[in-house]
């Protein structure tokens, strides 16, 4: 029972809570950006589209990194008798560990201010 509590707490605090914070913060950013660029010419809206693309990529990267691990944790919690090869169990853990690298890489490659320097 203690293992289940730990996994459920881990799922909530390391997946659901950060995902909620990401959606909330990026949503506010995009609303503010849209408000600032409202009424501008189409060429002036290009930065808004670039930022929107970058935000979507960061959300997708978070989901790619953490969804397999979260799903695996919930599966193991829901079906404790399931037998999974340890090598297969390591794959979701690998993705979750690499998630810390995705945001800086996406930011560097999608931000012209960084690449032009």
TrEMBL record:
> Keywords on this record?
Chromophore, G-protein coupled receptor, Membrane, Photoreceptor protein, Receptor, Retinal protein, Sensory transduction, Transducer, Transmembrane, Transmembrane helix
Domain G-protein coupled receptors family 1 profile spans what residues? 1-107
Gene Ontology MF term list: G protein-coupled receptor activity; photoreceptor activity
Name the InterPro entries on file: GPCR_opsins, GPCR_Rhodpsn, GPCR_Rhodpsn_7TM, Retinal_BS
Q: How the protein sits in the membrane?
A: Multi-pass membrane protein
Signal peptide annotation? none
Entry's Gene Ontology cellular component terms: membrane
Q: Where in the cell is it found?
A: Membrane
Q: Which residues are listed as membrane-spanning?
A: 6-30, 51-69, 89-110
- Gene3D superfamilies named in the record: Rhodopsin 7-helix transmembrane proteins
Q: What is its main location?
A: membrane
One GO BP: phototransduction
Q: What is this protein called?
A: G-protein coupled receptors family 1 profile domain-containing protein
Specify whether Metal-binding is a keyword of the entry: no
């Amino acid at each position: 029972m203690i293992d289940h509590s730990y996994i459920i707490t881990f799922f909530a605090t390391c997946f659901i809570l950060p995902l909620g914070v990401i959606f909330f913060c990026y949503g506010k950013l995009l609303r503010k950006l849209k408000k600032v660029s409202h009424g501008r010419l189409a060429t002036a809206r290009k930065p808004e589209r670039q930022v929107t693309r970058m935000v979507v990529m960061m959300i997708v990267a978070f989901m790619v990194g953490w969804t397999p691990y979260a799903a695996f944790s919930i599966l193991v919690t829901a079906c404790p008798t399931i037998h999974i090869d340890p090598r297969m169990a390591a794959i979701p853990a690998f993705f979750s560990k690499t998630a810390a690298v995705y945001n800086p890489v996406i930011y560097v490659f999608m931000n012209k201010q960084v690449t032009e320097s």
